[in-house]
Amino acid sequence: MPSPTPSPAVGVLLPRDLPTHLILPFARRAEELGFGSVWVVEDLGFRGGVAQAATVLASTSRIRVGIGLLPAGARNVAFAALEIATLAQLFPGRTDVGVGHGMPGWMRSVGQWPRSPLTFLEEYIDALRALLRGEGPEARGRYVHLDGVRLEKSALPDVVPDILAGVRGPKSLAVSGRVADGTILAEPVTPEYARAALGHIGATRPHRLVAYNIGRWARSGGGSGGSAPRPRVDRRAGLARPHRPAPVRRGAGGAAGGVPDPGGVRPAAARCLGLAVTGTRRRPAPGWANSVRRASRTPSSPGRTGSARGPGGAAPVV
After folding, report:
1. Is the four-CA dihedral 8, 12, 16, 22 of positive or negative sign?
2. What digits encode the pLDDT tens for the residues 212-252?
3. Any bridge partners for residue 230, and if so which?
4. Nearest-CA neighbor of 55 among 45, 69, 43, 40?
5. Among 42, 113, 180, 269, which is most exposed with the fewest C-beta within 10 angstroms?
6. pLDDT (tens digit, 9 = 90+) per residue, 49-103?
7. Nearest partner of 306 among 117, 97, 41, judged by Cα
8. What is the pTM of this model?
């Protein structure tokens, strides 16, 4: 059966370069604070997304774990389906998977950047979702080829996880609307950009939206050394900068052993750094073409053009 649609929720992203001994305490702390999800990233040269997700799922009991995101060119789609189905079997209803183009530079450096990223991503997500549903798609696409491949009954998950597309440009957003269960938007995500993106997505069925955003740390208690880091962020924000860890403050309270506190305030306040906002759009929004094109052309870090930096790399502006 399909994954139950989660209610609008706030989650925290696991920094890609957090010291190894802090990874599980960070995830457990997020669960203790009541966050709805933990997201992990897969950036070239850092840690694998599937391995991180499995470890966090096994060390927690309630929190959802999202992979944001797996570059499509990094794995054959049939073998990606095996990994995702295994996670979904072992931890039913707790897994979300983002798939995207990947950073063009990274993918070119390993010889996996396709001539048509849009075609590749659409074929890939379409085949991946079919395999996870137990179908045996006969794919004869430009990039994805499947001949009599299907998951065995014993390998099929009872709850099929959502497959989200981590994309940014108008054409990629339209692909997400056609084949994915939701979309991950890289930071910065303003309300205007979210509405514009939904217009380009144009989904005709329920479609989830995960928004990443940037916040900054501020210390509580007037900056005293014994207080936990307290995040402050505009209330429109979604998820903090995914490529920089929350600062580890030695001796900071509320986070034993120097673990960066993923909350600092209870999530009931819903105004924290390191958060993700996720929701479901049940009707397509009107298109705001000019707005989304302006947003998609805005680099999110100095000196970076033509792509939007986000978890799992950057979505090319296509």
Report:
1. negative
2. 876 554 444 444 333 333 333 223 223 333 333 333 222 22
3. 218
4. 40
5. 269
6. 999 999 999 999 999 999 999 999 999 999 999 999 999 999 999 999 999 999 9
7. 117
8. 0.74
* Burial (0-12, 13-18, 19+ Cβ within 10 Å), 134: middle
Reduced 3-state DSSP string for the chain: CECCCCCCEEEEECCCCCCHHHHHHHHHHHHHHCCCEEEECCCCCCCCHHHHHHHHHHHCCCCEEEEEEEEHHHCCHHHHHHHHHHHHHHCCCCEEEEEECCCHHHHHHCCCCCCCHHHHHHHHHHHHHHHHCCCCCCEECCCCEECCCCCCHHHCCCCECEEEEECCCHHHHHHHHHHCCEEEECCCCCHHHHHHHHHHHCCCCCEEEEECCCCEEEECHHHCCCCCEEEECCCCCCCCCCCCCCCCCCCCCCCHHHCCCCCCCCCCCCCCCCCEEEEEECCCCCCCHHHHHHHHCCCCCCCCCCEEEECCEEEECC
Q: What is the pLDDT of residue 150?
A: 95
146: number of Cβ within 10 Å: 20
Count of residues in the chain: 318
Cβ-based burial of 115 (10 A; exposed 0-12, middle 13-18, buried ≥19): exposed
